[in-house]
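The pair is listed for reference:
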Amino acid sequence: MRFHKIPEETVRRLPIYLRGLAVSPEQGQTHISSESLAAFVGVNSWQIRKDFSYFGEFGTRGVGYNIERLAREIKRILRLDVIRKAALVGVGDLGSALLAYPGFGAYGLDISAAFDVDPAKIGTRVNGVQIEGIEGLDRLKDRDISLAIVAVPRAAAQATVDRLVAAGIKGILNFAPCKVDIPKRVKLITLDIAMELARLPYYIPRAGRMDEEQRADSARQLQL
């Protein structure tokens, strides 16, 4: 199946389902219903069934999904059924935190190489990974590394991405706070943490408005 025909949001939800299967209350049982999985991961059950329908029939009516088989199928779809090596470029505060994060292994992802331009960092180790000089990026293809995480400053982002593409990287997770240009053959996902955080205040009432709402609630309670 050509995966570009699958809606992006469906692909975005598949890792959520995989995580849900790993830690759901149904662990220890053999099957889980779409309703139970939906309640646990916060997605409508009809959406789960629709997402899975793009890839085949995984469940049995009245029985649900075999948890082990479904997890295996999702890993196959996401191509997580083999270990995927990734390179990290930029070992500052964020990069160091990513290297120390233990959760990637559950998805078959291994940050096996890290690179930085700071001479004081080169040669040191973070969570067992030795930091290398940036010139090592040119040899990633020889090390069977096809994924990369970019955690460099804005000014260095485009040059870093260009070098990764030239080295044969096929997928890039970009944390640099800027847009970068890549060829269509390379998949890019950009996460700007500051921008995501900047969305939150919109959903939080201003202090004055909050006081008004609290007084209105109190008045309603007195009327009751």
